[in-house]
């Protein structure tokens, strides 16, 4: 499941680094729970799994372990849930 995103991925700041994109909203207004990793070496987007909740306006923090903590955000109201 590869998606096309309608925005550039901050090419200067993340040049040559893999970028994880989580959640958000699609073009018709549906919230997403997808998580995908972009590899600039190949230009490919790879699905990494689905989050437990649909999210937008959430945060994602890279932990020392290499895992990413995703928390907060909104569905129809504020979410206090977090997941790895």
What does this structure look like?
With 84 residues, the chain is mainly β. The protein has one domain. The chain has no helices and six strands. A three-stranded antiparallel sheet has the order 1-2-3, with no helix packed on it. It has a three-stranded antiparallel sheet with strand order 4-5-6, with no helix packed on it. The mean pLDDT is 78.
Tally of distinct domains: 1
Q: What is the count of DSSP helices, taking H or I runs of 4+ residues?
A: 0
Shape: globular
**Extended strand count:** 6
Largest sheet: 3 strands, antiparallel
Helix content: under 10%
Strand fraction: 25-35%
Question: Main sheet: which strands, in order across?
Answer: 1-2-3
The structure class reads mainly beta
What does the average pLDDT come to? Answer: 78
Low-confidence parts lasting 5 or more residues at pLDDT below 50? none
Gyration radius, rounded? 13 Å
Written as H for each helix and E for each strand, in order along the chain, the element string is EEEEEE
Terminus-to-terminus distance: 21 Å
């Amino acid at each position: 499941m590869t998606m096309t995103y309608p925005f550039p991925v901050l090419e200067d700041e993340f040049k040559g680094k893999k970028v994880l994109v989580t959640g958000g909203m699609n073009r018709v207004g549906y919230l997403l729970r997808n998580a995908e990793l972009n590899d600039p070496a190949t230009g490919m987007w790879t699905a990494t799994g689905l989050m437990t909740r649909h999210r937008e306006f959430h945060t994602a923090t890279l932990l020392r372990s290499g895992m990413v903590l995703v928390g907060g955000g909104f569905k129809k109201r504020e979410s206090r849930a977090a997941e790895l």
